[in-house]
Design brief:
The chain has about 600 residues and is mainly beta. It is about 10% helix and about 25% strand.
Length: about 600
Amino acid sequence: MRFDVATSVGVLASCWMTGVEAFWRMNCGIAQIGRVDPVVNPNAISGHVHLLSGASNINTTSTFQSLTAASCTSCSIQKDKSAYWTPLLYYQRGDGSFINVPNDGTVVYYLGRGEDRRNIVPFPPGFQVVSGDPSRRSYDNETMTYSTGRYRSRPVADRVSFACINYAQATPETPYMANTNCPNGLRAQIQFPSCWDGVNLYKADQSHVAYMSQIDNGVCPPTHPKLLPHLFYEIYYFPNRIDTSDGGRFVFSNGDTTGYGFHGDFLNAWDTQVLTDAIAACINDVESGNISECPPLAASQDDYFGTNCPEQAPLVNEQVRGVLSKLPGCNEVTSGPARAPQGVCPTQPNLNPVTNTDGQTRPVPVAGTTTATISSGSVAQYKGCYVDNTGGRALSGASYANDSMSTSICGAYCQSKGFSVFGTEYGRECFCGSAISSASAPQSECPMVCAGARTEYCGGPNRLSVWTVTSTPSSTSSAVASPSSTPTGPSINGASYLGCWSDAGGSRTLSGSYTTDSKMTLELCARTAQSANYKYFGLEYAGECFAGNSIRESASQLSSSGCNMKCKGNDTQICGGPGALSLFQNTGFIQPGNPALVNISAQNAQPY
């Protein structure tokens, strides 16, 4: 994430903290963007678009149990699989169209606040909460927090605030979106209620929780005696990256131009013991906010959370980014002061198929012990984590990079170049050589997950995960296989099978042509592609045929089990699956020069 955390902490301290108080701060990348809200709209499409962070499997049916099974989280503490979300900010152009505002993620604070802070209790499993009112379009100066003779109350509306960041000239925070000309970013902020009734995990009217008397400090009402960690979100936007010369306006996804309707949701999925230990050891004692200074949290800290657990493919089948003719859903743009209830659409989009990665783990490779079978059939042994790029490349024989990188792909590529030693770096780079002579490094310095294989590690910054080919398959052929070697699979005249590939992102893996037929077969799709001289073709959902001359860069090879649907026209053949293509290359494709196969082409080769 690119924002300045030090500045963030400084502003937070000056505006909310009274004296030195302890907290921890967790950076979060994006897990999902879409009309998903399992708290307010469980098992349904949400009324408006949200920016979601946290567990990789966030969906419309999420619960504590489902989130804790996620393979990873887009936040830095991997023992926290909770979900955090807020509405997405758009810009409405002068012509009425909309475009999403660049966003740089969310920062979540867990603060030790309140007079009873030494008795803070962890969020219980299943706890959910919403802060803010999406329908508000004006300041509510009547609804107040709890007060006593000693502790003053405060308007609940103060839970929302906006900071227009200008390093050259500081400006005060406001409870509405007062200024969007922000040279260093616009920060939307939301405070959560910290007082719990101790009984109910969730009530739709939020009566299971209450705010402290000063929202971020003070005392709880006697009806809500249990004090929880105080949650505070910061969401960073960059409105100055948008061309506003057409006189448009900024608006949140719920149609709110004021900011009074800003809100946030939290669905707890912490490892309860870790959260309990962190509260006991850190929430009242770590004044820097650094996770590294809190042992229960540092044990699962991932500095590469944004890379290792990237944004997931859209769950809802609709466009929510780029230029839009209207806000997704049925959200009229309003500026108040009257309330604006959430619009309800008569029809809703479908959900996209999702690959289930729950329970996936990433075994840490052990030098001299861990082996891997690469796509050529050869076996490679892990040598360890090695230093790279100190005066020259540690492996300088050949190199390339792509967003489908894995140990197998890198190994096969290097074999095809005649090298037996290979290493992966930065999650997506591959280097080859005859020997590794640089210094070894601790395994912890190779923490980045492979871009194309989320259960494997592919080095780190200036660090190589190095492997050596130790055996090759016995074969009547002495040819060395390349990453584009044809996997075992169906045979079609004039085509080679490339395997089962993903097709569940925001754009198609093959975008040249599309046909569907109730009698679809492999041969029918092949003829369609070959007659139009397309380089690749693929079949999906039993009856769909796609073709194109390039494969979308973010597409990746799946397990063969992902392609499991029988062709509508021949039940002895497989025609892809949900969000999965049975992918082929047209061997009769005519192109000047010497075209290479998918993912290993010269145009994809990017020396570091």
